[in-house]
Amino acid sequence: EVQLQASGGGLVQAGGSLRLSCAASGFTLDSYGIGWFRQAPGKEREGVVCIYRNSGRIDYVDSVKGRFDISRGNAKNTVYLQMNNLKPEDTAVYYCAADPEFCSTTHFYAMAYWGEGTLVTVSS
Questions:
Q1: CB 6 within 8 A of CB 98
Q2: What is the pLDDT of residues 2-49, one digit of tens each?
Q3: 3-state class of 102 per DSSP?
Q4: How far is residue 52's CA from residue 33's CA, in Å, rounded to a whole number?
Q5: How many helices (H) and strands (E) does the chain have?
Q6: Which pLDDT tens digit goes with each residue over 76-92?
Q7: Which residues have a Cβ under 8 Å from the Cβ of 22 and sit 6 or more positions away?
Q8: Cα–Cα distance between 113 and 103 in angstroms, integer?
Q9: Terminal C-alpha separation, the chain
């Protein structure tokens, strides 16, 4: 089976940190575009960060630059999102997604593979 699963969410106070994990089964992520996306209550889903497939370029949205860090694990089926200095506005369900051709922080709905989200709640 081809599956993605995000995990690692939880409740954290403002200024704290969490690390989210995205694990793939049935394929390896090193040859895919991959990104993290989130949806806050009452808002549309938005992009957080992408790793482009061919170049490896990493593209963060402005709201998380300097605070969030995406990285590939030593295993080829794992990607992480380290979230530091969390703010209440970061509260959302976070999703990872992958595609054999692309990743986009703005046009991500066509990405082929999506995992179930993990809830991050940041208290004031």
A1: no
A2: 789 999 999 999 999 999 999 998 877 778 999 999 999 999 999 999
A3: coil
A4: 5
A5: 0, 11
A6: 789 999 999 999 999 99
A7: 4, 5, 6, 29, 34, 36, 78, 79, 80, 81, 96, 115
A8: 11
A9: 40
